[in-house]
Write a structure and sequence with these properties.
This protein is globular. The protein has two domains: 8-62, Arc Repressor Mutant, subunit A (Orthogonal Bundle); 71-206, no CATH class. The protein has eleven helices and no strands. It has helices at residues 8-31, 38-45, 49-55, 59-64, 73-79, 87-100, 112-123, 125-150, 153-179, 184-189, 191-206. The longest helix is centred in the C-terminal third of the chain and has 27 residues, at 153-179.
């Protein structure tokens, strides 16, 4: 998280938010999400409880807030694609870029904490529900972009569901393999090839849909 272009006040606020988030993550991973209170997080971070809520509206936000910025990645990729590029082209390019960059949002993080966070989310019902809602929101946002462009709500929903499904399946596969003990570098080594095969599976059916004029 770069501080470039931020004034002193903004930098301090950002540093405080990062400190609170990291403190919360450490406590959640050590003790479990349900066993840690906001008051305990505030005490450990050496801030007031009110300060915590100034940066994070809910306890769930303390863990998952920073991840939410990726909810509409698919919609943005589709909406910003170049003329002549299909929705499949745009989604594949986004995924391949994330793979090349080892982006945590595609499940290729080499940080142990991030993998532990995924496990924590999966075994905590409130967090798992929120993650599922994010997936639904992301798919709906992509469908909306396509509907506005094509005027066909049904086919846009079908296309968004397929593209969102490919992204989710690839991310889940990366998580599964790494959590099973494979080195992130080994998983990343063939991630692009697997992504190409996954998109090829849906490309024929979607190749003529939403090609930007």
């Amino acid at each position: 998280m770069a501080d470039d272009g931020l004034g002193l006040r903004e930098r301090k606020k950002k540093q405080t938010a990062i400190k609170v988030w990291r403190t919360a993550v450490d406590l959640f991973l050590e003790h479990g999400y349900d066993q840690v209170s906001v008051a305990q997080i505030a005490e450990a971070a050496e801030v007031s409880k009110m300060t915590v809520f100034n940066y994070f509206k809910t306890k769930e936000d303390l863990l998952m807030g920073p991840m939410e910025e990726h909810v509409e990645d698919l919609a943005r990729a589709i909406g910003e694609r170049a003329p002549g590029s299909s929705a499949v082209d745009a989604t594949r390019a986004m995924v391949l870029r994330k793979i090349a960059e080892r982006d945590p949002s595609i499940g290729l993080s080499e940080q142990g904490n991030e993998l532990a966070l995924i496990q924590l989310i999966n075994r905590t019902p409130a967090l798992a529900r929120r993650a599922l809602l994010w997936s639904v929101r992301g798919e709906l946002a992509a469908a909306q972009v396509l509907t506005e462009e094509t005027g066909d709500g049904l086919l846009s929903a079908v296309a968004a569901a397929q593209l969102s499904g490919v992204v989710s399946a690839l991310m889940s596969e990366h998580h599964r393999r790494i959590l099973a003990g494979e080195a992130p570098a080994a998983v990343a080594a063939d991630a692009a090839e697997r992504a190409e095969r996954a998109f090829a599976l849906v490309e024929k059916g979607l190749s003529d849909f939403a090609v930007r004029a």
